Structure formats: structure tokens, C-alpha cells
## 1
Amino acid sequence: MPPSAGAAPADLRISAVDDGVVTITIARPEARNALRHQTMIELADAITAADRDEAVRCIVLAGGEKAFAAGADIAEMIALDGPALEQHPRTEAWRRIWASGCPMVAAVEGLALGGGCELVLSCDIAIAGSGARFGQPEITLGWMPGAGGTQRLARSAGKSVAMQLVLTGDPIDAAAALRSGMVSEMVAAGDALARATAIARRIASQPRAATRLARHAVLLAFETPLADGVQAEQASFRALASSDERHRRMRAFLERPR
């Protein structure tokens, strides 16, 4: 059942905002953090709320020690056909997650499979513990990725790696994910959250408007022709030229002791 309006999330732990960072942790260890419908709706609600909170400048998305998220809940998914999925709250939850303008850093330990891998790919930066494993096993069930997996994998890891993951269903380890560009850093097992939080705090220390516009500009590189992307970049560059925060920081830079 979907969560009741205003109810505390059952499948997540959400931290208080700390230095501009909020940490959202998937907490269904008994199910290897499988992304049931309720989990997806709660994630969308939490990310949307963080995106709207002026105090939040970066989100850390985490899972557990053994599983970031081991995919969708198959017992729920088997009951949904194509027409049902098209209008399902789960589908809308993914759209709401992708619509957020707040930078997101994934801290990945253990399994990130299926929808869990797609959730990592939906983040802007991903840090992997050395024991993490990434995969899109949907093909083994007669299905295929349906939450951006084919598109984001090809853009981040390239055609060959994406095809191998999608068409075989076999996972890759953290070292291979690092080589392919799926993650930006690999750290010792158990250290992904600490490193992701450090990066998030560094992002949060920057001006909110600038990080959001810069993030949007980078994402456009995957969605538009080069000329259109550069035009959008220049528009944001000019918009930030009039910001008080830009003037304050530049003045402080010029006035610093030498």
C-alpha cells in the first residue's frame, strides 16, 4: 500500500539537514533493500521535499552494508502488465526523482541491481565500496531495464559495457564499474557513505544557485546537441553573473592575503 500522507516513511531513514546535506537511507535489510512500490513513493517524496528545502544543497542516497538496493520487488512487479505500469504511482515516482534539481551523491555498498543500479545511475556522483556489485539482471526474467538503465548505462559506461550488462544480466564488480565510469571513486568496503558525505558537504559549501545551474548544464550534455548545450550553459553563466553570491565570493578572492 502507498504510504499515507504525512506518515513517517517505513522504508527509509532520513537524517536532519547537516551542513546543507540530507542523507536518505533505504532501510529494508530483510529484503536486501528491494524497491517495492512503497519504497519508490517514499523515495520520491523524500527527494522532492529535500529539493524544495532551501537549507538542503546536496542529497546523499545510501543503502545497507550488503545491499544498496537489490532491484524491484518481483512479487509486486509480476502483477503489473504494460497498461498498469504506464499509470502506476511507481512510474510517476521515478519521474519525480529525475525532476529534482538538487545534486545527489550515491553511497553504494553491496548489491546495486536492477532498479537499484538505475537509482545509482540517476544520481549525479556515485561512490562505491570495494565490495559493491552493479547489474541489470532483468533479461534473465524475460524483461529489460525500464527506469533509464539502458540509456544512462550507455551514456556513462559506453555501448559495450551497457550491452554486456543488459543482454547477459551478469553483474560487474566495483573496480569494473570504476573503469567504465559508472562510479567516480572506489573506496574500502564500508567507507562509501563517509566519502559520499564528504563530497556532498563540499558541494553544499558552494552557492546553491550555482551548483543547481551547473548540474543542469552538465546533464544537458547527455540530452541535447553540443550547440544547444553550450547555448544553455552560456545563459546560466550570464544569469549567475548578476548574483550577489558571485560578487561576494569574487571580492573575497581578490581581497585575500597574498
## 2
Amino acid sequence: MLLTVDMGNTDITLGFFDNEELKITLHTLTDTKKTQDEYLSLFKMLFREADISYQKVSGGIIASVVPSLTERIKSALESVFSFTFLLVAPPIKTGLSIRIDNPLELGGDLVADAVGTKEKFGFPSIMIDLGTATKVIVIDQEGSFIGGVFTPGLKVSVQALVGSTALLPDISLKRPKKIVGRNTSDSMNSGAIYGCAAMIRGLVDDIEKELGYNCHRVLMGGYAYLVKDLLSSDYSFAPDTVLNGLRIIFERNVNEGEKNHAQ
């Protein structure tokens, strides 16, 4: 089995693949205050509860957007499995052409998103990744990553609103049945969720106008489930895209290494 790890600012997602099939997905909160030993204990507990056999896991790869935590997580996992994890960072081979001002700025999660999207949906594609930030990113008609649009994510937006006002309460994200809220909680949720869906529709339409051609539209990320039913059937819901992208990147590097070794 292969272990793929997506380290985000809010959550850490671990996906176990048997060949190309995602068999098990585990989640835990990202906590930069935790030590390596604390993460080691946490992972062992998660794996025990999920009945993961360490001996069946033969490889691993990590994408991280939390640099201060990357080495702690990587070392903790390597202590569990006794092999070296690949990290989505130079000089790893991704097979992705990146045409932005500074390719080194691009997070490993977006690289994996793009690789997974190209493999499943082809190109040109617009990926909408709803996580801590909402990212609307573009693979052009030549298959190159050319950039995108970043906005505050759903939860971040609500937290900013609550933190900047005296009377608005903190809320749990839940889509109201109607756009026009009749109470404070519904009105805030409506603004966050229906507002996000409207923003996505507008941005995607404007991006396609700027590009001059239509694209595959792919919805992913931890909060995507909140807006997927508010978008048309032109949008494909693919929540595991980043994990599948990590699997593909791992296979490209392992297969390349085996080929070079054979030569």
C-alpha cells in the first residue's frame, strides 16, 4: 500500500492506496504546537483504530503547505514505517509544466491537484479547491499550470466576520434551505455558502472569457461538499484529487528510479 499525506493549514489528510484504489482516508487537525513525539503517538493511535498493518505500507509521499511542521510530520511517519517519505518539492519529478512568475512559490498541494486533475479530466481545466483558502486555478489548453485566484476560505471568512463584529456569533457551517436568512445564523451561513457558490460561478465564467475557451470544471477540497449542489452539472466533484495526484507523482518518481537503476 501507498500512504499519501496532504498537510494543509487546517487539516492533515492521510490516504492509503492499494494500487490505484483509495482504500482508507484518515483526518486530523493541523497543530503546529504538537511535537514530533506527540504526532508519532497520534498517528499510531489513528492507524491502530483504522486497523492499518504497517507491513503492508511500502511507500509514502507528502505535500505540505506548513513548512514549520513538515519535518516533524515526516520524521514521525518515518519512525512508524521505517522508510523515507518523498516530499513534493524540488527536485521531485511531477510531469507538470508550471508557467508562473516563480514556480518555487507553488504549494505541493496545488501541484498534486493539477497532476490529479490532468490525469482524470484532461485539460484545459479550472480547479476549484475549497480549503483554508479558496483557490481557483487553471491548467491551460497546452496542459500547463498558469496560475489562478486565491480568496479567503469559507471558515476563514466567517471567522474574520465574527472577529470584526461585536454582535455576530460564531457558527457552524451549514447550508440554509433559502438564500434569504430569517435569523443571524442562517444569514451568515447564506452569505458564506451561497456567496461562495456565486463567486465561483462568476470567477470561472470570467476566467474562461479571459482564456478564450471553455474548460473542465473540477471541484475539490474539504469544504467543497457545502457548495457542490449549488453548481451546475458542468462541475465535477472530485474530493480526492490531491491524494490521487500524490499517488501519481509517487509512481512517476519510483518508476523513473527503477528504470534508471535497471540501466
## 3
Amino acid sequence: MCFTPKLVSGVWVGGEERSIHFDSMAQGQGAAMALPIWAIYMKKVLANPALGYKTTDNFDVPVEFNSEVGCD
């Protein structure tokens, strides 16, 4: 799962049948399989101005958020 300020999306790789499997755990992990698919998808989303998503979009920070509070 990945998210931007205006879009949440996910990529699932695998199979519902128990007989479907990857040759190794490294091939089946998200960074190896799902991340490249998501990157291609996001490039296409950001390249289409009609969708209204931009790399400059920011998350809204609540007014009551105090960035000075830290963890001790």
C-alpha cells in the first residue's frame, strides 16, 4: 500500500491457489515485485494532468499539531 496526499493505492502480487508460489522469498517480497508495478502506475497517474495529481501536493497538517513535542 502506498499513499499520497490525494491518492491511496496498493499492488498485490501472488495467487489465490496454494500451488502458485515464487521461487524464492526475495522474488515475492513487495520491494521486488509490487514496488516496480506501483512506480509505473504512479508515473502514468502523474503524467495525466486530467487526473489532478501533482508531485507538489502536500499533506494537510492539523492546526493543533505541535511540531515542538518530542519523544523522551
## 4
Amino acid sequence: MKTLLNIICSKKVKYSLILIILLSIYIFVSAISYVMAVSSDLENSIFRLHVIANSDSSEDQNLKYIVRDNLIAYMNEISLDAKNKKEAIEIAKTHTDDFYNIAKKTIIDNGYDYDVSIEIGNFDFPTKHYGDISIPAGYYDALRVKIGSGKGQNWWCVMFPPLCFVNVSSGIVPEESKELLESELNEEEYSIISDKSSSEIKFKFKLIELLQNTNILTAKK
């Protein structure tokens, strides 16, 4: 009798463990699918700027910010009519030489002779916060500007929709930029990057951030 009970209990434990494992796999796969969908939509909606300083000296870091400001001002000027990321990238590609000339002139005008490289590609970005908008880590299409040896600290922002601020201390995202971003995402996706009050939304953002930062999903295009 005891042997029979042991067999039955053993089978129940075994089945329970199998169910738990299957449920865990299902939850994990569902989480990955969810994160991939959100990340893909974000990456397909955003064009970013990545500026790398020559070094970490205070002078080179200050130069980086001056170059950044001039490039942002120019991008905002030429991309006023851009309705989506694809249009913004095409505009940037058309004006690559102008970006180079602006950056180079800024460097010379500030008393330096560093070279500068301009590249449009797909690059790895960490999680970044822009006012009340937060963009999770991942690979994003971007205009990358490397000043001199490019061994200094990076600066990241979003060129389209325009979330870069020349006066970054304001921390205020223009309503027009939010509307452009919201039009590219579904309601839940936009909530994930803009809603700081909901514990459920915070959890989803952290889930995306965790899976991206552990490189489970991150893959360069």
C-alpha cells in the first residue's frame, strides 16, 4: 500500500514539476515575444544621435556639447517636414556632408584641429531618459559623430522625433515630438515609455530593459 502511495505521490510530483517547467517556459517565451514586439516598434520609430568626444578632458567634453548643439539645431531645421523615421533618415543621408562641415567648422572655430567622422548606421544604445520620455536599451538607427580619436564619453539623444534639447536642463519634451512618437506606436507601447505612475507599466519597462541589457534579444541589424 505504501509503495503504491509512494508511486502515486511520485507521479504527482513529477507531473507537477513538468507543469511548472512548461508554465515557466510559456511565460518566458511570452515575455520575450512581448519585448521583441515593443522593442521592434520603438527601433522602427526612432532615429538617434550619438556624439563621441575626443577624450574625457573637460575641454573635449565641452567641445562635444557645442558640436552636438550645432548639429541638433541643423537637423531640427532641415527635418521640420519629416513625418516618420524613414523620411528623417533620408534627409540626414542627403545632408551628411553638411553635418560633417558643421561639426568640422565648430571644432576649428573653437581652436581645435581634430578630424571628425560622420556615419549613419545601427548602433547599441543604453537606456536613456529624456524629460518624461524613457527609451529602453537596444539597437537603434542613428547618426554617429566621432570627434578626433573618439575615446571620450558618449552623448545620446533622439533626433526623430526631436527629443534632443539644446537646453537639456529644461527636461521638457515638445508636445509635437510626443505626438509624432505616439502616432508611430500603439497605446500600450507609448504608455511604456511615457507613463511613470503605473506600477504595471514600470514593470513592463523594467522587463524590456532587463532582457535588452542581458543581450537575450539584442542583435545588431
